[in-house]
Structure prediction request, 583 residues.
Amino acid sequence: MTVDVNKTDGCADVTPPAGPEAIKAVPVRHPGRYVSAAVALALLGAVVYAFAQGKINWDAIPEYFFDDRILDGVWNTLQLTILSMLIGIVGGIVLAVMRLSKNPVTSSIAWFYIWFFRGTPVLVQLFVWFNLGLVFEYINLGPIYKDYWSSFMTPLLTALLGLGLNEAAYMAEICRAGLLSVDEGQTEASHALGMSHVKTLRRIVIPQAMRVIVPPTGNEVINMLKTTSLVSAVQFLDLFKQAQDIGQNAGSSVEMYFLAAAWYLIMTSILSVGQYYIERYYARGSSRTLPPTPFQRFRAAVLPARRPKGVTA
Amino acid sequence: MTQSPTGASSTTAAPAAAPAMVKAEGVHKSFGSVEVLKGIDLEVRTGEVFCLIGPSGSGKSTFLRCINHLEKINAGRLYVDGELVGYRQKGDKLYELKDSEVAFKRRDIGMVFQRFNLFPHMTAVENVMEAPVQVKGTAKARARERATELLERVGLADKAGNYPSQLSGGQQQRVAIARALAMDPKLMLFDEPTSALDPELVGDVLDVMRDLAESGMTMVVVTHEMGFAREVGDSLVFMDGGVVVESGNPRDVLTDPQQERTKSFLSKVL
Prediction:
C-alpha cells in the first residue's frame, strides 16, 4: 500500500496547455494486474514445488532420452504419422471430389463414409481392424495372396488403416471446403479456354484451393502425430508404447511419460515450421489479399531477423 | 460413328451456306421456371463486330454464354461456324456432345469476362501460356515467346512477371484478352468487358478491342459502351426481356431507334 505516493499530490498543478507540449500525465494504475500476476506466479510456484517434492527421478529422463528403443519409437511414430496422413490426404481428395460430383451414387457413398468414420472413435476403429480376424479367418485374394488374417493384419497395417481411413473422412471435409472456396469464374474461364474438367481441377482449382486447405491440414498433421499414441493399444511400437514399456521395466513410468511428452513437443514444433513454409508457397500471387493468420503474425514477429537469409537461399 | 472431334461431317442439316460465324434460330433458355431467352434469332457474319446492348436482366450475357456452351439452351438451334453448339445431329435426332468434344470446340472461341477471371496463382505471362501448353500441347518456350508477343500487343510487355493482384483492373482485362487470343480463336466473346473498370481505365481496354476489330476478328460484344458500339460495331442488337427488340446498323439504331422500348432505354444511357 505504500506504493501510492502520487496520490498525495492531488490535482493542484494542472496548468492550461501553453502549446503543443508533449503530454505528461499520471498513468492510470492497474492494481489488478499486479494482483493477478502475483496469483499466477504463486500458483506456478506451487506446481513446481509439488513436482519438486514428488518422488520423481529426473535423472532418468536424460538417461533414456536417446535410448535406442525411444529413437526407434520416434521413428515409428513419424513414419506412421506421415503414411497415415498420406492415406488421409489422398482419400480425402477422392472423397471430396466424389461428394461434389453430380453422380448421386458416388456423392451418397462419400457422404456415408464421412458420416461413419467421423462418427465413431478412432480407438474403436483400431480395435475393429485388429480383431477382424474373428470374422475373417483368412484373407484370400485368389492366386495373388492368401494368409491368416492375424498374420496379414500386422500392427503397422492395423494402425495405418485405422488412422488413415479415419483421417480421410476429416480431410474430405477440409478439401471440400477448399474446392468450394475457389470462385466459379475460375472454372468458367478455364473451360472457356478449352481445358478439360480434370485439367481445370488440377491446374486451376486445386492450386487455389490449397491456400484454404493447407492451414487446417497442418492442424491435422499435428493432431495425427499425437493421435498415433493410441496405436500402442494394438501393439504397435510407437514412441508412447516404447516409453511405457521402458517405464514399466525400469520402474519410472512418470519419468518416461515426461520424456515422451518432450519428444512429442519437439516433433510438433518442427512440423509447425514446415507448415509455415508450405503456406507461404501457396500464398503466392494472392498474398496481397490474404490477411495473415494469427499463426503467421506470430511467426512474422519471431522470424524477421532471419527472413532475409531464408529468401536469398 | 465417326469420332472426329470437329464433327464437320455430321452437320449436314445445318444451313451453313451463308458465311455466318454465329447463327441463332429461336434460342430459348430457362433457369428453373424463369425464362431468360424467349426465342432469339440472329446472325453474326464472319469478320464483323456484333454488339449486344440492353438493360440488365435482358438475357444478353446469357445468350453470349450459350454461344460457347457455358449455358445449355432449352429449345431452338445455335450454330457456330456452321456447326451445332453442344449437340450433334444425325437425321432428326440430337445427340449431346461429350465433355471432351465441347472442350475441343471451345478452343476456337475466346471469351473475356466482366470480372476478368485471371488465374491468380499465375503471373500474367503464365496466364497467357496456360491454355496453349495444357490444351494444344505447345512447347513451353514457344508458348512463352508467343505470350510475350501478345502481352506486347495489349501494351503490357513490362508486366509479364506480375501476378494479377499486382495489376490494375484495366491491365488485368488486357491480360485476359491476350489469354483468349493465345488460342488463336476464330471468334471472340466479350461479356461486358469494361463494366467492372474505373472510368479512366476503360479507354485502354477499348483501344485493344478496336485494334482487334481492325485485324478482322469476329467479335460478339455485350456492352454498355454506346460510343464503342457506334464507332467500331458493324451490327447491333437491342435486347429486352429475352427477345430481340431491334437490330441493324449501330449508327442507325443508336441515333434513330424505331421501337419505343429502344428509345426509352437509349434516352437513359446516352
